[in-house]
Amino acid sequence: MKKKWIRITALSLILSSMTAVSAFAGKWAGDDNGWRYVRDDGSYQGDGWLEDKGNWYYISNGYMKNGWIKDNGKDYFMGVTGAMLRDAITPDGFKVGSDGAWLGPESVIDERGFTTPYDNHSYFLDENSLELIYDAETDYAEELGRWGMSDIRVLAALRGVYPVSGLNEKEAAVYQKTAEFLSDFNYGLSDREKAERVYEYIQERAVYDTGEFKPDSDTIYGVLVLGKSECVGFARTYKLLSNAAGLRCGISDNAAHAWNSVMIDGEWKGIDSSTIGMSSSFYLDRKGFSCPICGTSYVFGARESAWTCPICGIEYDNPGFQ
């Protein structure tokens, strides 16, 4: 299915009132263009507001809207599920009231005390996976809300588009540690140098937690605040710091382990910051592998002993496996 991107536009300063449209029993149905509300009689809900199970949605051109919408002069934010936010702070740092309407320009908050080259980049919404994207050129910050932490909120706060005061206690602690990392960061470094700096920063601050599993073992809080974590926590930390420094970075995993894929000069490289004592060059000097039959490209993780080509079904050994 082809991905569609929606840019969340700038807010208007004009405020007035919302007009409701009658709701009908039915259900949501998705297609290549988005989500439509199908009534019990088989007809589609028309444009305007729709109340469903206590939440308000906005239909435009027959489909559910996400992000900012304007109705009768007021601005409302429709979340990633399409439901209107109420008494909340939007992902881009604006307050909305009990009726869902934006409270005005005085609600914009930036409490950082520092700036980065990536501040205030536009948000995008991947309609297929309902994930917010900060900047398609430098990162993709999917929601990782496991164990009481939202990585996307921390990154948004670092970008100046979400209020620091909106973070919970663990998120705020991670924000502070990451802000310290960024305080003297040289954004003019090459992709390779940025990737190495992030790797070294993590290696200097945490060890692999070999004890009994605890919720913080899978979080950035475990790495940057407690100084120990398991592979998922290391992977989440490397991703956050890399995205904050302007690198595209994702999380890769198999049934037993998690690591990162980071974009270096247009090429994805596998890197694993949880292997304490290993140099970053051990990963970044690796070359991509291509299936000799169909040409499918792949980058082995250091702990992957083999890879099966999804096209040909042929298994290949990892030449760098140790």
TrEMBL record:
Residues 190-269 form the Transglutaminase-like domain. Pfam families: Choline_bind_2, Transglut_core. Keywords: Repeat, Signal. Residues 1-25 form the signal peptide. The keyword Iron does not apply. InterPro entries: Cell_wall/Cho-bd_repeat (IPR018337), Papain-like_cys_pep_sf (IPR038765), Transglutaminase-like (IPR002931). This is Transglutaminase-like domain-containing protein.
